[in-house]
Amino acid sequence: MAVTEDLKEQEEANPSPEEKKQKPQLWKWSVIFLCLYGFMAQLKPGESFITPLLLSLEKNFTREEVTNEITPVLSYSYMTVLVPVFLLTDYLRYKPVLILQSLSHISIWLLLLLGTSLLEMQFMEFFYGITMAARVAYSSYIFSLVTPSLYQRVASYSRTSVLLGVFTSSVLGQLCVSVGEVSYGTLSKISLGFVIFGFALTLFLPWPKRSLFFNRKLQGPEEDSSAELDQMNRNCPQPTAVKPVSAWRNSVFFQMLKELLNVVRLPQLRLWSFWWIFNSAGYYLMVYYVHILWNEVYPAIENKHVYNGGVDAASTLLGAMASFAAGYVTIRWSLWSELVIGIVTSLQAGLLLLMSTTSNIWVCYVAYALFRSSYQFLVPIAIFQIASSLTKELCALVFGVNTFLATILKTVITIIIADKRGLALAVHPQFLVYFGYFTLLAVIYFGAAANVIIKHFRNEKKPVTPNQNGDTELCSTVMVVNDAEKLTNGQV
């Protein structure tokens, strides 16, 4: 049996010439189908109107129940399932986790349609947390279908399909509510139909033969020779005897954890990881509670005057444009990163203050769209700054750790200010707290920016001092190169 399995693996790793000719067409159709799924999975026209539904006469929950008892469960659920889902995504090779995500989507809309109690709505938020954690399966799945040379292109395809799906879903929901005067209950039924169709699509997704960490032995010889994790294994001393402790210390995962220590030593990676953890935590807290704020600022009597879907569509489009524009910003990021982040964060603080104090719902809408687009502007810059010095596998681990730490921070803030067991603040005081949070972050960023800029201009004024051999001192450059070498295992 073992010999048969080995031969089978060799055949899969070394395809025949005819199979090689079929592969280009195969991956193209696989990517197209996955992008179609990414688009369809976002078609939930009722998603922008979940909070109005809970506060409407159809469900009749109070604003305090939604703010302090139902919505906080989303943060707790997300934190609880994030790490298991992250590991299972790679171990089970993506598809089962996408199926779990689709089943969770179905559970959400069934509970919204049939549930009437507070506990059932809390379970709805629990399943919502699972769907958010499972997004990593879609974003990483597509990389298992293509070679590394195509990563950037297919990543743009998958991201575009998701954004287009969110935009279409929001517009469709707004048209149903404002033009068709569809009830929130009917909108939930339409959303349920779409997510059931999305579930059917997951059953036909191709099952990848490899993944990033746990399933690598089925790779072709060309990919295998250039894989960073395999390079790690070759660089690591192999134990002479099979001992659990020795095997763990020489495992790929342990080596990657050691590599993470080098991330802290690189200023740009440290800065953007800090931004990812602290700013994204505040961003998602705002997104979770902003619909409750809108309902309090403008408690519309008629559903057709609730414009959540239109605002979500506009902010998604504006965010996509901001992300696209970020790719063309060419400045010296090692010098100006802190200042740029400080300016954007102070702008976000001002927008939060505006949202928490205004009584005009249209001002709230505009401030929300600007807040989201300013965050989306920095996301691709952060991804590039973090990923540019890391291997593919280490990059995935860094983003996973950053996201988990952001989730812990978000959960702690939720327990303190939103949960009924904490301060149980109403939504307006919560936004004042978020304003203070972003103001503090802006002060930290401006302080760091001043420190970096002052050091830079002081060093420029210093005359270049030759060493004993008449060569220019290159200490700092050597240190940077050495750090890069450590992070890339010699593959600079």
TrEMBL record:
Pfam families: Folate_carrier. Belongs to the reduced folate carrier (RFC) transporter (TC 2.A.48) family. InterPro entries: Folate_carrier, MFS_trans_sf. It comes from the Eukaryota. This is Reduced folate transporter isoform X1. It comes from Huso huso (Beluga). Gene3D superfamilies: MFS general substrate transporter like domains. Keywords: Membrane, Transmembrane, Transmembrane helix, Transport.
